[in-house]
Amino acid sequence: MTLRVRGLTIDHGAIRAISNATFNVPRGSITAIIGANGAGKSTLLRTISGLKRATSGSILWDELFALEKLQTEQIVRQGIIHVPEGRSVVTELTVHENLLLGGVWRLHSHKSDVALAIEEVYQLFPRLNERKKQRADTLSGGERQMLAIGRGLIARPELLLLDEPSLGLAPLVVEQIFQTLSDLQEKTGMTILLVEQNAMSALRIASQGIVLDQGRVVIADNAKAIMSDSALRHAYLGY
Ligand code: ATP
Ligand 1 pocket check: which of 15, 51, 85 to mutate, most ligand atoms within 8 Å of Cβ? Predict the structure, then answer.
């Protein structure tokens, strides 16, 4: 199932956050959306998951579903799961309880399905397994990010929307989380739309890169092509 964004414009009052954006996120790919602070990356993800309304344009999922017209809950029921920026987990609950919460979003699922999905997350992130009884507010930043991603995975998403998973994390932890995402994508064929300021790390695991500059899509190309074009990197990515 491909996600097709067509002529999407999104405003925050008088501020135009996204301007006439058009791109595809092919099924089974990792697509990285990169761009500077305030480029509109989070706004774009929030609109895809129904948390924010578009001013105009369309977001088509699987040829059938016009996401811009659906409520967040209906969008989740299409298998689209958003892991927002800021490692949002329920701080008073343990690691395991947070993962159980992720099961709420699984459709027609049995308790044993959720238990199996949680085991898979523990295999993916052994650190969470070691800390399953620990309260989420006592986890390190990297562990919390693993938990936020893990909780999203319990719903077995078809499309995973990840907002800046690398934010505030040590480079080694970033590499570890990105490698895990890449392995997971290969294993499950899930589609991942990854928003990142950390352009290099994101493009390394992505097949496609979309560069946003002040709300406009300035590049939508093969990730390797973007990485190897130094003029383009200087102009938009600052390295
Ligand atoms: P960052 O990398 O810093 O998180 P971003 O690329 O995710 O940035 P957005 O958070 O989408 O950017 O913001 C895009 C623009 O919209 C910014 O100019 C921001 O100030 C503005 N904006 C975002 N949310 C709101 C809001 N709720 N009300 C008003 N303006 C907003």
Answer: 15
What separation in angstroms does the CA of 182 have from each of 29, 83, 141, 203, 207? Answer: 10, 16, 20, 11, 10
Question: Among 12-26, 97-111, 157-171, 177-191, which stretch is predicted with the lowest mean pLDDT?
Answer: 97-111
Packing angle of the helix pair 111-124, 141-154 (nearest 10 deg): 140
Rounded distance between C-alpha atoms, residue 125 and residue 35, angstroms: 28
Please give all residues whose beta carbon lies within 6 A of any atom in ligand 1, as ranges: 12-13, 15, 17, 35, 37-43, 197
15-60 confidence digits (pLDDT tens): 999 999 999 999 999 999 999 888 999 999 999 999 999 999 999 9
Ligand 1 site-directed mutation target among 41, 194, 236, most atoms within 8 Å of CB: 41
Range 193-218 burial, b when 16+ CB lie within 10 A, else e: bbbbbbbebbbbbbebbbbbeebebe
CA atoms of 31 and 128, how far apart (whole Å): 26
**Prediction pTM value:** 0.91
